[in-house]
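Ticket #4471: structure export looks truncated?
Reporter: QA, pipeline team
Priority: medium

Steps to reproduce: submit the single chain below to the structure queue and open the exported record.
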Amino acid sequence: MSKKLLIVDDEAHIRMLIEQTLEDLEDDGVELLFASDGEEALSIIQEEQPNMVFLDVMMPKMNGMEVCQRVKGDADLQSIYIAILTAKGQEVDKQKGKDVGANSYLTKPFDPDALLDLAKEVLEIED
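Actual output as written to the record:
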């Protein structure tokens, strides 16, 4: 079964940066999926059930915290690994991420190597 990773950000250039960071994973059979707002993200998560999601917080229609809460509150989806990726790096924001069930919390600007390492770890891809 192929692994799926969903990249969610309302800014196209950030989606592209993350895609460029993670594109080598496609050689390992990982399918990259994309969403540009919270509603779209939630419907892709429900339909595709990706193994992992890089999720932006501040987005139109539904923010990342709400998406995370809905996913983690759904018994069929709660095993999906959610990494919140946001410009909000304060302790209170990180706590909010934990409260809604995020598996990890990364701040922008992100370190591409750290992003790739996390994805490889979660998706169990050997170097």
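Status: closed, not a bug. The export was complete when the record was re-opened. Leaving a note from the reviewer for reference: The helical segments are 12-22, 38-48, 64-72, 91-99, 112-122.
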